[in-house]
Amino acid sequence: MSDFDQLADYVFKGNAAAVKELTQKLVNAGGDPMEIISKGLLIGMDIVTPKFKAGEMYVPEVMMAARALSEGMNIVKPLLTGADIAVSKTIIIGTVAGDLHDIGKNLVVMIMESGGFNVVDLGVDVSPEKFVAAIKEHDAKIVGLSALLTTTMLNMKVTIDHIAKEGLRDQVKILVGGAPVSQSFADEVGADGYCADAMAAKEMATAFLN
Amino acid sequence: MALKSRLEVLTKDDLVRVHEATLKILRETGVVFHNEEAIEVFKKHGARVENKTVFITRELVDQALATAPRTFRMRARNDKYSVTVGEGFLIQPNVGPVYIQDLVKGRREATLEDYANIQKLCQASDVVDLVGTIPVDPSDVKSSDKYLLMMYEALKNTEKPVIGFCANTQQVRQQLDMVEMTMGTPGFLLENHCTAVLVNSLSPLAYAPDTLETMIEYAKRNQVILLAPCIMAGVSGPISLLGTAVLQNTETIAGLVLVQLVNPGTPLVYATASTSGYMKEATYAAGSPEAMLINTASLQMGLDYYHLPVRTMSGITHSKTVDCQAGYETMQSLLMGMLSGAQMSVQSLGVLDAIMTTSYEKFIIDEELIRRVRRISQGIDTSDEALAVDVIQEIGHTGTYLSHISTFEKFRSLWTPTISDWGNYSDWKNAGSEDVVIKANRKYQHILQNAPETLLDSETDKALLEFIEKARAHQS
After folding, report:
1. Which residues of A touch B238 (CB under 8 A)?
2. What are phi and psi of B290, to 5 degrees?
């Protein structure tokens, strides 16, 4: 097994310590950071995704793989030059105002990061103003809004309206998700996409960027 | 008549272990309360507070347990519907579904009309004891109005004890005022428990702002709090079922302490609504046998260790339609809930899809499941008369019991179904080979067609509508 294949396998198996060690070894040996990412780390996650979709891998295994991946990314990311970092892959995400639930949102964050996205996680109970400030600061192209409660999901519309009022609506694609959220609700509040789960969020975000 | 045993998963020693584990967590890790008033209450009573984390001592827990009632009366607008909480197996409406579903129109977002319809079904039902709450969340009204309009529909279409909604302080006060207007004189609520509210902790080990505002307002007005952590083992709680029961217990006891500090004697129902996680999706598993096993452990704590009235979430399923899976998962959950000693049950009236949906037809079918389970809970008559030695000897070897006077006197007390088909094959075939869901569809429509226009007198109705108008004007 080549070092890259080995690295991918460690990511797939969620072995964070081994990913860290091998990534460091490859970097020390003068390996190309982009190659370590694209031929090693992300390949591991590419094995995970279809297995998760097929119901063979469970969420805790996906999260362990994502955690292992980020251990490797932490080592190679600082070595990337400005040209390597695609600014357009930045996504702003948060649970909308009034809602403190974050299990689903955190899952989306991990899956997005494992897809190579630069995720700016604003946390929970995020005001429309904070979303707008973050879009401006990070020049983001994608915004993810999360809500668990039927009472707070209405703040998705408030947030989207505020983004529009600030003149940023055409600059970003807005994805919404959460237990009570549906496609028709997403249409009603003027979102660009409804994501039923974390994998759907990653795929939709990827599609929007292409 | 009653069953001679209960479903149990913990030994007496285990109950002590769970309690001691709870005290250790409350004392050393504490619970986060996202509300200034709650924090102040704890500080005033000597609890150590760091930022929003409250550390609760054994003394505070003991004191709260001493003032919380074991049973209490809940007054209905029509007193014949008043109930005692802490005995029997009371049924309350579902809480939380976003969708409504029926055979003809399929699944769709619920409206205020659907909300009113479910209230009518609850009022008409001989197995539903409490009304109100959120059996379906109406999508066609403004969020600022929703609480007023739901409460109005509940009061208009029912006269059983009503359950309100978790909301902010002002909205909660308005709900309570509306209930009081229908009960009679101002101040009536302070003397009588007329309404309840379901609140959930923000697992793990926290309480959200609206939840606390609701708990504090209900406690101040001496109304009932149904406190139910909804933990998913492996997601928002430990993967071990016992660990999740410990977390559930810890969150409940923390809430109990707050409520008893705000107003000692406030009735609080130890409600259990946790499930195992569905680890393929990191959501919760509604149809799992393990869900009720967690709650069985918690019910033992509530009943046998704390002597509080207990409620559970039973009758739930993950099925998307009224099919075989919906039937067996619902019955598994409901039966385990009753056998575990629950004195009240929620999510037992037509839920589908892990409580995302309420089905009109399943509501009717679940009524029968509840009747079945209640019958089981009664056990058998063990009197000398029931031993029936004299009758057996009288009939001897050749007679028939069918025409014996003892049969004639009692045969109608045997349980019979209200929706299931027990007839013979040819009758069933000649009647159109109908599925139970088709019969249920006809039945719910019939009930709705025969429901009274309103159960409010015109004066109270007018007063409520004026109250709503004023509240709306105040908002804008």
Report:
1. none
2. -75, -25
